[in-house]
Specification:
mainly alpha, two-stranded parallel ribbon, 10% strand, RNA-binding
RNA sequence: GGCCCCCUCGUCUAGUGGUUAGGACGCUUGGUUCUCAACCAAGUAACACGGGUUCAACUCCCGUGGGGGCUACCA
């Protein structure tokens, strides 16, 4: 049977690193095994789910290069793929479970439940529901409903040890006597996550459930549910969690940046995929740089580790630089321009024909595209002066004089020539090395750092250089 | 509190009874260079702890400690 996996986010927020890894691993596993990936939207929490999140999640996944075979947008044989549109299925399932005597109405209020929990805790007992509505007579149930009480429906948990093989964790076992009966249908008729997941995974013929480790304790419940509904439970693989810098859980603000923030910073999608794949997975041969396509061919679940990992921005940045340097010049510039356009940060001082040359200067210098915006300022006639204190050193004056002479003599549309300028400077200026080049650089670019002058000079104009030289001279005097 | 999962350099990891415990990021130093970056070279640093099992444990078992998760009519 062919592999069918799913990524099932709830649209209650944007995709963050943790989500992305689950999505990516599902995608890679499907891809590697020529299987199918289902995108299913778990929007049973009416309060918190928002359609715009669904849209953004799909956009982000697409940006990352994660492709799905079935989903809300592309459809499929087992749709619909939004749980809010599958209520009939959950209703059916509940009816069948009730008929089979595996589910029952529960009239306990939130206060009742709290009291039970507190009592159990005080006695040091497992904090489980005491199943007290299990024994309700049909007549009692009818009376309560007739009196206007809205019941929830609980699943009857079978006691005993439940054991299963997790692809990542290995053999896992739980004592089901420690679990109380759990709610599968809320009083308002909406299913809970447990029911919806099992019904859908069953109906959609999911073969492997790859999800976060936070779901590990849910799995024995789900296995019982699957069986009670007549489904063969899928295989499970529980991924360890990703932590923040200090090892604390990845929270919304700390490091759990949304995909969009990475897009804005100017990382390539391949970089994010590559870095996240390396969190918990290693090919075993010390290789670290992968394009998504290569991951699709290399990934396997049995090389996924068990321990939680910390998200490290430094390494992400290194990886990003590596990817950028592997791009061809054309690709680098094309993607740079794409980024600048998307961020509405296209330089106004250069037309597109010139831009190629300007941008290419920074290919070896940046880790992500947003650095480009600032770096490009060395070509911007409107860019403010920076680092001009370097011009205070006494030797700067003679350098400025030579510069002025050279550029004033230059034809209006003539390209500045590094060699010629250099000869002139060598001939008439006493300083050399750093003492020559630093003031020179600052006078021409207004920045103490940047690509080699030799590289950038051909991209500068007489007008721009003179403007800066005059400004620098007046500053110096 | 109860149950479950996890534990190799600061970080990501390789390793499956016998290794000088390997690689990468970071950091340090040197090289290159007009600067920054990049690049090259070298260096730094780890098996959480305590008991077993064994001729031999990072590897297996048991405890302790630490971290995390679940314990919702959230997913």
């Amino acid at each position: 049977m062919s592999v069918r996996v799913r990524f099932a986010p709830s649209p209650t927020g944007y995709l963050h690193i943790g989500n992305v890894r689950t999505a990516l691993f599902n995608f890679l596993f499907a891809s590697r095994n020529n299987g199918e990936l289902i995108l299913r939207i778990e929007d049973t929490d009416q309060e918190r789910s928002k359609p715009e999140y669904t849209q953004q999640i799909m956009k982000d996944l697409a940006w990352l290069g994660i492709r799905w075979n079935e989903g809300p947008d592309v459809g499929g044989k087992f749709g619909p793929y939004e749980q809010s549109k599958r209520l009939n299925h959950y209703r059916d399932a509940v009816n069948k479970l009730m008929e089979a005597d595996r589910a029952y109405y529960c009239f306990c209020s939130t206060e009742d439940l709290d009291a039970i929990k507190k009592e159990n805790q005080a006695k040091g007992l497992p904090p489980k529901y005491n199943n007290r509505c299990r024994g309700l007579e049909d007549s009692e149930v009818e009376a309560k409903i007739a009196s206007g009480q809205k019941p929830s429906v609980r699943f009857m948990v079978e006691e005993g040890m439940l054991e299963f093989e997790d692809i990542i964790r290995g053999h896992v076992k739980f004592d089901m006597g420690l679990f109380g009966d759990f709610v599968i249908l809320r009083p308002d008729g909406m299913p809970t996550f447990h029911l919806a997941v099992c019904v859908d995974d069953g109906l959609m013929k999911v073969t492997h459930v790859i999800r976060g480790e936070d779901h590990l304790p849910n799995t024995p419940r789900h296995i019982q549910l699957f069986r009670a509904m007549g489904f063969e439970p899928p295989k499970f693989a529980h991924l360890s969690l990703i932590m923040g810098k200090g090892g604390e859980p990845l929270s919304k603000r700390l490091g759990a940046m949304s995909v969009q923030e990475y897009t804005q910073t100017g990382y390539l999608p391949d970089v994010i995929d590559n870095y996240i794949a390396l969190l918990g997975w290693a090919p075993g041969d010390n290789r670290e740089i992968f394009k998504l396509k290569e991951l699709e061919q290399t990934f396997s679940l049995d090389r996924v580790g068990k321990s939680a990992s910390i998200f490290d921005l430094e390494k992400l940045n290194w990886l990003s630089g590596e990817h950028l340097r592997q791009l061809s010049d054309d690709e680098f510039v094309r993607k740079s321009v794409e980024y600048l356009e998307l961020q509405n940060a296209m330089p106004k001082f250069a037309d597109k024909s010139k831009l190629f040359g300007l941008i290419l200067n920074f290919k070896d210098n940046i880790a992500h595209f947003d650095e480009l915006i600032d770096r490009l300022a060395i070509f911007d006639p409107e860019a403010p002066m920076q680092d001009v204190e370097i011009l205070k050193q006494p030797q700067a004056a003679e350098i400025l004089i030579v510069l002025k002479e050279y550029f004033e003599a230059l034809g209006a549309s003539e390209v500045p020539n590094y060699e010629v300028l250099n000869q002139k400077l060598k001939a008439s200026v006493t300083v050399k090395g750093k003492e020559l080049f630093m003031p020179l650089r600052v006078a021409l670019t207004f920045r103490a750092h940047g690509p080699e002058l030799k590289r950038i000079l051909p991209h500068m104009t007489k007008e721009l250089c003179l403007k800066r030289i005059y400004a620098a001279t007046s500053q110096h005097v």
